[in-house]
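The instructor's notes for this session suggest beginning with a concrete chain rather than abstract definitions. Hand out the sequence below and ask the class to guess, before any prediction is shown, which regions might be ordered.
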Amino acid sequence: MTEKVTYSELVEKKRDMIPGLAKKFLITEEQAEKFLKYAIEDCAKSKYRLNTTENAITGPPEKIEELRKEVEEWTDDEFDQEDFEIIGYCKNI
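After discussion, reveal the predicted structure:
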């Protein structure tokens, strides 16, 4: 059995982080939203070994729930310049 969660659902839960990320990394809020999506994708792939597509993440329900909880706990301090460079520059933000 697999479960699916969309990036937009997870990004929406952390919408309040977007202005802070934009200011911190000197990017637009649109770019900050993209960065957040890519950070979620990176976490899903590397930490939870979930399957990712352009719009969604799929995998065992318990792993999807762990990912949801982790993302919900993220704060503005979650990412530093090195994270931005690794995730953001690789995706051309």
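Then share the key points. The chain has one domain: 3-90. The chain is about 60% helix and 10% strand.
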